Amino acid sequence: PHTHPPHKNYTMGPDEDLDTLVAKRDHINVLRYIRCHQLREPALVLEHGKALVGNNLNKSLSDETVKLASLEQMCLAALDVQDHDLADRCLDEISKSVPKDAGRFRRLLGRCLESAGATDDAMKIYDDLVEDNPANVYALKRKYCILRAQPGKEPEAMEALNAALEQNPSDTSSWNEMARIRLEMGDYKGAAYALEEVLLGSPLDASVHCRLAEVYATVGGLNNLKLARKHMAQSLELDDSPSNRRALFGLVAVASTYIEQASKASKKEAEDADPEVAKEILKYGGEKLIKMYKGTKLFAAVQAVVDEKVEYSEKALDVPELK
Amino acid sequence: MAANEGKKSSVMISPEAFVTMLLHAATHGTTVVHGVLLGSISSTDNLIKVEEAVPICHEEPTKPLIDTALSLVKAASESAVVGWYTSPERLQDQQPGPAALRIASSLAAASSNSSEPTLIVLQNESMSQILRGFDPANLVLKALGKDFGQQWLDPVEVTVTKQGGATSAAQEAYKQKIPVADLVDHFEGSSVDWIRNMPLNKCVEKHC
């Protein structure tokens, strides 16, 4: 059973879900589905790919482009499971129909070299591609990936990612990656900045609002916690189904932290604070959680957590600064 | 000043916790993993007993996520929080990242009896060898305590009880692909229990 989070943003690909296609042994569409939804399922790709083009990769298909796309997809899947032998055979089979100086072929070759550890050779290919075309974002991103995989190369990796962003400043996936690397470094302010850029590209994505809220709450401070509340609420407005329970827990957590900070705030900060609003948000979120978990294993724990936070907030707000 | 000041602390890890940590990391081979450690701390001999490991996430954690995780775990379990574990994203990284270090020190700050939690860092290369049935050249995990710079980078003695059985259990669980869920998987709708993984515990019982 495939328990991938639902991808709401794909615009093409087969209508049926993956399990149906696998059961029907619809190899071409299994591969298409995986490609369109950008899933990482190397074992499935190799199984259905081999069924499609044969173990020797030389079954001819009515559509040559379908065969080449499948071989390319299989080559990358082979790299993912460290089957370099199969990856090389895919390259060989592809090169029978494609000139070796074709951009797409060189890109695939670059990936094979990266995976085999020949990072200098891979870098050379990407550098050449960028020289041919400075706007080759794919090559710029691969350069970033090579550096990212090496410990101790964080500054160079950051520079490479910035180079890719310079060429394509609205590329959501690069900003996503920037957010990820900033989080890894512990630079939460930088991660928030990057996620705001991601949000510009996907303003209706509930999960981005939730992540951004979490990062603002991690940076801390009353203003950021207010932003965190806002984005958690926005996330829930966009998706209040059980699949977004992370935002519901998040709402309770950030409202609770807001109240904690507000109760310790200086007189000046407390002037702008609206802890009563936070308390209502906390209660609202808490009630929804309790309703959601009724009858499940975690019910008692969830109720205990909500009760504790509500109780704490009542006490914390009973403070002269906030009156 | 504690009466045992100056005595080095040590960590003892139960087979269940060992297997859980390894399987959690192995399930998410391409990202960092984090989880909380439960058990008991004996102040008389500075021994930290890690009884359970509860997987939390397979991404960089944020404060609300950790707050939620710790609240839920404390409400669902009677054991105390005694530490945190992590497995770095890259194969060759052997040290904890800034997030794990920050979590360790905030656990210490929050602890009611000023006991020092332990930070366990799984060693990916050794772990990869052991799960595939080989004898690793080096230790599969490192335990860290607070050093003079107030960072959790001081290596501390660590043992796994019934190490042989724990290792075979981990190897079998890995081979059988026993599903391991963390809190984030639970958020995404997984029905696998992230707090008490019965199939995994049964596998450990079999070997220990």
Features:
heterodimer, A: 323 residues, mainly alpha, B: 208 residues, alpha/beta, seven-stranded mixed beta barrel, 7 strands, 24% strand
How would you describe what is shown here?
- The complex is a heterodimer of chains A (323) and B (208).
- In chain A, helix 12 packs parallel to helix 14.
- Chain A is built from 17 helices and no strands.
- Chain A is an all-alpha fold.
- The longest helix of chain A is centred in the last third of the chain and has 19 residues.
- Chain B is of the alpha/beta class and 208 residues long.
- Chain B is 37% helix and 24% strand.
- Chain B has seven helices and seven strands.
- In chain B, helix 1 runs parallel beside helix 5 and helix 5 packs across helix 7.
SS summary, helix count of chain A: 17
| CA radius of gyration of chain A | 25 Å
Head-to-tail CA distance between termini of chain A = 55 Å
Number of strands of chain B: 7
Helix content of chain A: over 70%
Largest sheet of chain B: 7 strands, mixed, barrel
SS-based class of chain B: alpha/beta
Oligomer: heterodimer
Rg of chain B, rounded, reads: 16 Å
From the spread of the alpha carbons, the general shape of chain B counts as globular
- Structural class of the helix and strand makeup of chain A? mainly alpha
